Amino acid sequence: MSKKERRVLFVGLLIIAVLVIGAFGCASPAPAPGQAPKPAAPAPAPAAPEKVYTMKVSSYGGPGYAPRTVLEKFMDIVKERSKGQVKFEYFAGGSLYSMEDAGEAARAGIIQIGHTTASYYGAKLVARSQAHILPMTYDFRKFNQNYRKGFLPWQQEAAGPGMNWKILMYPEHGTINVTSRVPIRTPAEFKGKLIRAVASQKSPLELIGGTAVLMEGTAVFEALQRGTIDGSLGSIDSSITQKWTDVANYVIYIDFLPATIAAVMPLDYYNALPADLRKIIDDASLEAESLMTPLVEQGLEKEIATLKKNPKMEVIVFTAEQRAQLSAMMTPFHDSMKKKYGKDWDDVMAIIKRDGLGY
Questions:
Q1: Between the N and C ends of the chain, which has fewer C-beta atoms within 10 Å?
Q2: For the chain, which residues make up each domain, given as ranges?
């Protein structure tokens, strides 16, 4: 056999060997007698998409109103950190509900976030929160400037049993004062004035001589315009954005009580959210609320500047002595609160005394 023939034979045998090895190596082994062949492994299921939560939100106040600004910042933070898992259907400036109705809508789960105020729910809030927001109990200007966060733990406890509220934010944004058609320059001049108020403000207002007219804030503009009331209690930033100052010529700063707006969520809705979203919401609440103090300070400066631009408007600021006189006139009311709340009232008053927040 020649050298060339031997090479051809070797290559042929090599090809046959490769084919034989491949056939035995790649073939699946036959199942044992009586044994069914193993099924092929299923393809992995596609990952389920994350549930998207759409929250209906009702805010209060016009553009630039500090509590509305803070709530809008909260929504921005949550949208960004949830990466699209939380979306908001936003109804601004009371376009969906008034503050009182928004609180009830949140309790019922009709909306997921609403602006409301303790003034409508005083009897249903826990004692410590109620004690610190009562009229003329301490100098609110000192409190806002120096001590606002000291009460935050009590504020977070504010929703009592049965309220079905998770309080997201409970910021103070200045104080409640009077927008009036007539001048009130001294405590004695409150006597006989028809002042719009909410139910929880009626008793202390009447102790300083005013006559309380109970009505919603949305009715104040027309009532002032028609002269059916002399003035209204309310925050002055709200008074400006709601245009009460267009039909009343006097703003009287008496610091009647702190202006508080709570952003609330149905508690059962909050509890049903995934833990990671609850943490995002809690963190966003604290971060947004921390903006409140500088906004209040900036807002007060802007508020006074805006009022002074109106040549028909007069700003009357009660002195510390006059505010102390109003507080003394409310002593019977404060005594009734001490009797009602006992130790909680004493705890609040002790902090006020300790930190020099009194009049």
A1: N
A2: 53-354
Round the average pLDDT of the chain to a whole number and report it: 81
For residue 246 the two structure tokens come to 């267009």
Percent of residues, the chain, with pLDDT higher than 70: 74
Cβ contact 74:288 at 8 Å:
yes
Query: Measured between alpha carbons, how far is 218 from 33 in angstroms, rounded to an integer?
Result: 86
**Architecture of the 53-354 domain:** 3-Layer(aba) Sandwich (3.40)
Contact (CB, 8 A) for 204 and 326: no
Beta strand 262-266 pairing with 113-116? antiparallel
**Residue corresponding to tokens 């109990």:** 137
Average pLDDT score over residue span 49-63:
90
3-class DSSP assignment, residue 104:
helix
Does the structure show a pLDDT above 90 at 257?
A: no
Q: What is the CB neighbour count within 10 angstroms for residue 161?
A: 7
What percent of the chain lies above the pLDDT cut of 90? 40
Instruction: Name the token pair of 333.
Output: 């009311």
**Region 218-231 average pLDDT:** 95
| Burial profile 28-62: b = 16 or more Cβ within 10 angstroms, e = fewer | eeeeeeeeeeeeeeeeeeeeeeeeebebbbbbbbe
